[in-house]
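Appendix B. Extra example for self-study. Work through it before the problem class; the solution is given directly after the inputs so you can check yourself.
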Amino acid sequence: MRTKTTIASLLAATMLVGAGTAQAETLRLLTWGSYAPEELVQKFEEEYPDIDVEVTFSNNEEMIAKLRATGGAGFDLAQPSHDRIYAAQLEYDIYKPLDLSKIDTDAMQPSLLDGVKANTTIDGEVYAVPHQWGTSGLMADVTKAPDVKGWDDLCNPAYKGKTSMRLRRTILLGTAFSMGEDPFAAYADLDKYQQLLDKVADKLIECKDNIKAYWKGGDDLSAMMLSGEIVASETWDSTAYKLFDQNKNIVFIPPETGALAWIDTFAIPRKGEADDAAYKWINFVLRPENVTIMSASTGAIASIKGAKELLPEDKKAAVNAAFTDADIDNLKFFANIPPGVEDMEGKTLEKIKAATGG
Amino acid sequence: MTETPAYDLECHGISKSFGSVRAVKDVSFNIPSGSFFSILGPSGCGKTTLMRMIAGFEEPSGGDIRIKGKSVLGTPPNRRNVKMVFQHLALFPMMNVYENIAYGLRCRGASNDEIKRRVQDVLERIALPDVGGREIHQLSGGQKQRIAIARCMVLDPDVLLLDEPLGALDLKLREAMKIELKLLQHQFNTTFIYITHDQSEALVMSDHVAIMNDGNFEQIGTPQALYHRPNTAFVAGFVGDSNRWSGKVTASDGTGGTVETAQGLTMQFTAGGGLRIGKGEAVEIFVRPEFINTVRAADAAAAPGDNHMDGVVDSLLFNGANSRVLVRSQTGELIEADVTLTGDGDLAPGEAVRLSWSAQHAMCFPRSGDA
Amino acid sequence: MVQKDVRRLTLILLFAPFAMWIALLIIVPHIGMVALSLREKVAPRVYEFGLGNYIDFINEPIYWNTLLRTGSMSLLVTALALLIGFPIAYYIAKIAGNRTRGALFLLCLIPLWVSDLIRAFGWILLLRETGVISTFLQWSGLVSGPIEFLYNDVTVIIGLVYTVILFMIVPLVSTLDGMDDSLVEAGYNLGGSGFTVLRRIIVPYAMPGIVSGCIVVFMLTAGSYLTPILLGGKNSSWFTEQIYDQFITRFNWESGAAFGFLLLAFTSTVIWLGLKLSGQTLANTVAKS
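Solution. Structure tokens for the complete assembly:
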């Protein structure tokens, strides 16, 4: 679609590397699907005619893998989740510290900003600021599965063969919470965490029989839920909101133990070449009038003050149907993943996948 | 009925149609045991179809095929004791010589000892006792030929079919193989049915030859009979070389008379194939080169025979004992005649000559539509 | 002399792109992979040379079970592709007329025009509980409730066979095409039954095609990613998924590289064994067809 401008700008960018003041800059954005709606990109390019935006869609794991492969080159702005920065930076050195003076941090909701800063400060340098936040929890068709309240309800024999989950770390953590444990606290002692993971694995292997299939992405989850093949599932809230639009019986349910909250951030790759443009983009998308456009596309809530009011109407309705104030207070923010934990969790997930319990 | 039937193969009124095309039309013949029988015809005459019906690869549209007196209609090819040597031999390239020959025996469920004995036996009979372990691609053309025959003969077939197996060989080898095939047939004393479009192969090897044309058998007979006493214009023209005229009968007593050719030559003739030819019929006249006598014009008075024609030697075709002379007649036709060239006082191009032949050798047939 | 040099230069220039392609895209990355797989992580940003990744593989039954599972299912897929593909190839090469033949070949090619992903989604649409087949069966009254055909090993195998069968058919057609019909007729004529002719003549003749088809199909299957992931059930792990997880989800490039190398070694060993057992060589199978 934008190949011509992209190629031209790539050429220009290549020629002007090191020239400092670039006439036409390219902002190479590495972000989540739906995090760069075309409407917003056009608006940005109108406002800053000398900047071309080039978007690559990805996810947490691939973002890190891509940046690791190049040592932090190839992109000018990345948007990993807040818990995925600290260890990756320690391990692979792929980001550069942010210049907070160039970011309009006053507009941000202080609790989220402080949370992200606390999570991503290494040697006194801050590596990320919050962009949008959302939660992982449950969704259910309330007419068919009225009693879904906690993570362990996915393993309720009443819904045998009609539930689903994604075999990733979220369900490990959720299950741990539903067993009355606090996995984030256990990060401090990895031996203890391993024991906890083993217990979680046993539980999830036992539960396998109850699961129809593990979903792999928003599309197959949506298809299974809308067709009624499953009645309850672990989910991202944004996916649930989209389904709520089409079927008011499908609602997002924050688990009793608290929905798991993530914050997608802004971080600048170590060899990024358009820092100014990156800061411009950050401030641009956090402007209230742009937040609504962004949220309409992502279904997540911006991390600025009063963001909930800036949600489009349908999303607002979905959020209000899902969350009470108590639920908001009960949110569990993903804690930083210490080095080594990815591996332990990965092995646990492999064990569950390979088990023939179901 | 313990008596052995006189014929190894009998065909009664066989026909075969492919859609609206009638490839074989109502063909009947019997082949006596132990004879070498050829089916000779131009390509597309239906001879291959006929052979495939005998082998069982095609089912006849009508008629009956009997082998050793028993009808084989409905019997699948692998149940018929008729073996076939294919045009390109179809030796199995992934097996060695031994396995190729043993294949049929194994299909019969013969014991390993018996297979070994019989394969060795047949290899000795074709005078290739030591090639058992060789691969097919290591054999010469003639050896392959013999292996292909041995592969069939080891199964003691009632009839062996050969589908132009010499076609792929070079001329010299082909000449040698003709004689060898005949000897092999004598040695095995099995009925061979040999299909070819090459008349010299058919004439040299066969006891009997069937001339096939357009789905029909024109004539069945010994090679000599076919050559000297053809029954139809097609046979006369197809077997051996002939000078050919077409004309109209001006006088006839039924078995012979006078004809005037299209070029205006008057000729005495004999009706061929025991036919009766009446006055006014359109006919074709065939005269073989060896029956035409050539003398120099100076000696013209001495020329024998009923028919005469004057001309000029156009060229000499020297081929040793089979040499010929091409004579251009006064009306412009070229006529071939056999001559004996001794190397001393021979004819030379440009000499005036007189050709002569007897009425007996001017074979005449009614002109058929397509001839 | 000059001409000789020119000719030699031409040869080098002609050969250079191919050599570069092989070197840059195949040899260098593989050397890199092997080197990477021999690094052990001892602390963040600190690595040591060692066989730790391979030892991990041996010590963890999940890994080698997955590899064996992938290997055995790939063999099954290869066998099924051969069983289904052979009659099709035989029909195309020997029975179909010239015109039908082109059409049939095209028909086999069509699935390759769409991407793996679309093909997998096609199967999902057909086979899911609320999909076309289940709905049709219910509508026709053959079954009373919806049936889930998706998410099990059988589906994975069907999907894989469908994806790879063309790579079995093409080499088979090209070898069978070269077979003189009279070989088959001779087989019957000499007294062979249909089965004997198939076993002793057609199959041995087609052996180079069979082996090369099997090699390609086995490699493609063992290395496939999307089909087993998308159609597979909750218990069906595939080794490529394991490699992806190591690289992407667990940031463990070292063990991912080791796994990749192990997959290569494993498939190469299976193929070597297959060639030994069938008495064929690479030169007269893959190179020929």
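Self-check: The first strand of chain A starts at residue 25 and ends at 32. If your reasoning did not lead you there, revisit section 3.
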